[in-house]
Amino acid sequence: MSRLDLFIDRMVSQRACLDHAIAETAGLTGPVFELGLGNGRTYHHMLERIEGRDIYVFERAVASHPDSTPSEDALILGDVTETLPEAFERFGPSASLVHADLGGHNREKNDIFARKVSPLIEPLLAEGGIMVSSDRMYFQSLTELALPKNAVEGRCFIYRR
Ligand code: SAM
After folding, report:
1. Distances in Å between the alpha carbon of 121 and those of 11, 105, 148?
2. Cα separation of 33 and 114, whole Å?
3. Structural domains in the chain plus CATH codes
4. Taking a C-beta distance cutoff of 8 angstroms, is the pair 30, 161 a contact?
5. Which helix (H) or strand (E) holds 13?
6. How many angstroms does the Cα of residue 126 sit away from the middle of ligand 1?
7. What DSSP letter does each residue of 66-78 carry, written as one string?
8. 106 CB near ligand 1 (under 6 Å)
9. Could you tell me which of 117, 118, 121, 126 has the C-alpha nearest to residue 161?
10. b/e 38-56 (16+ beta carbons within 10 angstroms → b)
């Protein structure tokens, strides 16, 4: 499989999983957390698709497309290993949807990081809240869900409280 194939699978899976999770959590009012802004494509997608919920972006260094750059009050700047525990103090277990796309090119490093941040993400989710991730996560109390149509196994993971 070429890198182009992998990239396309990841993009298609992100969109399918996000759309599914947005629909599944439409009845919840809690905030949405985007972990890793990057270029801002998935953030922009969520802005377009989510109504009536605040969306906060966690990022250590903003370098996004101007159309996809959050306002200051929607940005939680810093390393997620520090800002996620602070977010729990601020928001409690209220998030309706968390999307994480924090990884880089090194799969082993991504897995180590996923193990590190899983216990920081887990308490943030409200009852019925959904977490979508590009990496497998390591949760104690969340249930892994089947992927929606069009998503590719291994390219995206979905969990629900
Ligand atoms: N989903 C994004 C999009 O559609 O454009 C791409 C996200 S990009 C793959 C990953 C982002 O996560 C990078 O911008 C990086 O700076 C951020 N990131 C990685 N590790 C982080 C950390 N420990 N704390 C905060 N941000 C982090």
Report:
1. 22, 22, 22
2. 16
3. 3-160 (3.40.50.150)
4. no
5. helix 3-24
6. 23
7. GGGPPPGGGEEES
8. no
9. 126
10. bebbbbebbbeebeebebb
Per-residue tokens: 106:
């090194």
Structure tokens that stand for 116 in this block = 């590190």
Q: Measure 59 CA to ligand 1 centroid, in angstroms.
A: 6
Residue for token pair 């409280």: 161
End-to-end CA distance of the chain: 34
Distance CA 2, CA 70 (A): 33
Sequential pLDDT tens for the chain (161 residues) = 999 999 999 999 999 999 999 999 999 999 999 999 999 999 999 999 999 999 999 999 999 999 999 999 999 999 999 999 999 999 999 999 999 999 998 999 999 999 999 999 999 999 999 999 999 999 999 999 999 999 999 999 999 99
